[in-house]
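Entry for the shared binder. Reason: the reviewer on the internal report wants the predicted structure included alongside the sequence.
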Amino acid sequence: MVHYLVKIIFLLFIIMPKNTHSCKVSAFGYEVHVLNNLPANTPQLKFHCASGDDDLGYHYPAIRTDFSWNFCGAFYTLFFCHFWWGDKDLSFNVFNDVSRCVKDGKGFVPSDTHKCLWKVQDDGVYLGYFDEHAKENIYKKYRDW
């Protein structure tokens, strides 16, 4: 009897549609923003982001524009991005930790953020979060280009 119940639960899990974009930002919902903060009259920023089961495609954001997505997160959720700017490139995880956006990120106050912000600038890539008053709290995460 238990064996059949396990099979049914497994089949329901397999056939349930996965839509990472339908989850609202809440206790289990997360939002990732990538802001092109590069100077005007510089090469076009290009990036590609994906997770194990969700390819977000290539993006070419204009200066001062933000590309964002939301998803239902769990302790095993991972999104990564590859960035190109002129002859420079950088790739890294943009989300793999429900409390700090990335496991090696600095702790934030509050320590459980649901809106991660990646700001791409000419001097490096910054990581931060939005607090309840929509203020940015940000620090330089990755080296100079």
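Summary line for the report: The chain has one domain: 21-144.
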